[in-house]
Amino acid sequence: FMIGIPIAFLVILAFLPSINVASYLPWYKKGSAADLANFETCRAVVGNSTGDVRGCIFGIPPPSQRTCVSLGAPCQGGFGVRCPDESLSSCSDVQVEFGSANTSYPFCSSVPGFMASKSACIHDWFSHCSVSGACNATACCDATDAAVSPFAPCSACEANRWPCFQGSGCLRKADAKLQGVINTFLAALVIVIGFAFVPASVVVFPVKERHPHQNAKYQQVACGTSVLAYWMSLWTHDVLGTLVPVAVAVGLLPLYSSYRGDVESMVAALALFVVHVMTVLPAAYLISMRFTNHSAAQTSVLVVGLVTGALVSIFSFLCRLVDFQLVHTLTLSQLDTNYLRWVYLVFPGYQLSDGLFQIGMRKYGNPYGSSSTNWFTATSCPASKSCWTSTKDPTCCVAQAFEFHVAGRSLIYGLVEIVLLSAWVLYADRHKPPPPSSSSSGPLVVAADPPHLVDGDVVAEAARVARGAAASDAILLRKVHKQYDDNKVALQSLSLGIPKGECFGYLGINGAGKSTTMQILNGFLAPSSGAVTVAGLDVRTQLRAARRHIGYCPQFDALHDTLTVAEELELYARLKGMADVRLAVEDKLRQFELEPFRSTLTRGLSGGNKRKVSTAIALLGNPAVLLLDEPSTGMDPAARRRMWDVLVDVLATKSCSILLTTHSMEECQALCSRIGILVSGQLKCLGSAQHLKHKFGRGFTLDIRLGTTTTPSTTAAYVGTDGGVSSKVTAADMERTCMDAGMYERWDKIVRGTGDSGWVLRHYLDNEGGVPSDVWRHWWMLEDMGADLEAFVTQELPLASLVEHHAEHFRYHVPKSSGHTLTSLFSLMEEGAVGVPIEQYSLSDTTLEEIFNGMAAGQEEEREAVHGVHRHLLNASSIQAVTSYHRTSSMTRLRESDRL
Q1: Which domains does the chain have, with CATH numbers?
Q2: Which residues contact 20 (CB under 8 A, 6 or more apart)?
Q3: What is the pTM of this model?
């Protein structure tokens, strides 16, 4: 993209035929008045010439004379042709008669090769060639040097007036200039369009590296890469990549008529290309910081490049070409050249376009330069002295290619922008130490739980941190609060210390604040208040030193798609400054069983193997602090166990502390000596896994699923429908049924549309005006069965509490204070629940997962109402675990009920 497309545009331009203005101007059209006049004159010349003279006229010299030259002596008011050494007594044989309307001689060239046949003169008089900017009045159109100049016949016509159109293509001087202007501008325009794809391709990589699901840039910075080193590496890579299209552009310049044989112009064009590339690179880097989607960034940069380069150039060119009076003292051309142009030059694309155009036009006397005269527009060759304009002036000159009004202004603008944009990139991506108090724009929002609801272990940990007892801990967070600009609170006064050699399990659902904590420890986010130290170093003021002690495994794999596994590990080993890079890479390949994949591109790895590589990167260099954000996600059980063994070996050295986030309770219990559960940015509990089970897991969990095929006797009595599937029950029918059954609270459920199941019927009433009879009967049946179950639980398990209810599913917590054991509860369910239509039930002890789910149920995002689900939330002091459907120890019994 960065190389192929610009080269394609350059090659197309090199072989694209030039535009011939004579094909579009009416007075050059075959059959016009000028054409007919010249045709008649040419025919007269041919008719009055005989023998060898006629051959000379058409470029066919006689056998005895191999060359024909023009004769500048007048013959009865005209010019003639003759062959050298030919004896002519008079000019009568070559006399040319002129019509009274023809004031200048329409020369039929005597230069060999230009007029190959008589038919070319008579039937194809005009063969309009391209007159380039290299053809100035002195070098090309001087009649005294006809042997050198193929355009010598032009000067035979006084003041180059038409109809002096030679077979080789002599145009009027104004038309020749117009042709040069158009072709030069189109060449510059095509080049600018091609080079607009350079920044569009450059912007992709930095955006990909900053994408939240890759974060490769953050990983490199976390490994100690400085901002300057990061952008310099990108800049070096991109400059080397752009050398190819720049080299091709310079190599093809001699094929463009404006640069043919002109070394000075080629050098100036090379300078423009180099400055342009070095300007658009930091501009692309700046734009990349505004995007997280590389496709959107690429499209945006391309559009901006085409608009500010191509479209602005076209608009500026038309302003100068199609001129008219705007006000009394200002024309459109003056507005553009004296004012707007200085604004347009801010855009790198316009700099390149204008510079190339002015280089190509300098031999025409800079016809579209600034009309004002001051110190920065002064030139060594004013337009009045141009050799193109002044044919006979021996002091005529051509402006230098590097002068300010030619390529100089574009180069100066570009060089200034290189410095400013590069400094801007480094400034925008710098690490700004957060203020010691608050970094949020508004007042801090604190919504902590009341003191009596805060767990005692959390309070004790905060007190330990506050009195300085945790000063030597490897990780220390002291009253850390993080609030975003939209007043969303991610962390609330978090105080936590992790000693050396400890693995701390940091649990919480998505949005609880785990990743925010990780980013604060890494220095990617600044806390709104509080202090953070890593390995005894203040992250706010000693970030670079602190990062040398951190190994970071992000939540998403920060890998480069085009590197192999071994190359990826080598990259980060070098970034961390390891002495023996090869040994470190081999060690990690062996530890994580990645040897078979050493030459595999990371993009071809499975999810589990990618996590292995990310964890291996974090362990490079034996860091004092390991931040592992869900490292085992996607790993198979064997690979997970292998990773656990590696981490256990690391912990055995007592020199490394680990902060581990995971959704695997098994992993937490296997690795972590302490566990903390984070809910809405607050630490809700803290302690070992056994401690949390003992403190918050007092009791059993009973899951019940009622049968849906048994219809209680009350259903048939009170439903009040004829049993047809297609019939509908109206609101009045349902209200009357509830009243007749003495269960008006069920009608309240329907009216409110809330509760555990009333929303279903309310939905039918609002959208269809009635409820299908089978739905109505099924709902009534579920309500009857739920009432029977509630009566049974109330009688047999009076201390049990309903935790969750959804349709036929019920979940109860049975405290140990009820006096029941697992054996007695199974007996009760088997023998005592005969009158309740239970289809399936399960009993289990409280697990760590259940404690986690119970805590997480208090997360703000989890409190949103879900239709058909009735939850009973428990606070931190009386939390009784909410069970999951996947348990490590449970017993299930299915019972098939008789169908009525």
Answers
A1: 31-125+132-170 (no CATH), 183-323+345-364+399-426 (no CATH), 500-523+543-693 (3.40.50.300), 700-847+883-894 (no CATH)
A2: 128, 129, 130, 179
A3: 0.66
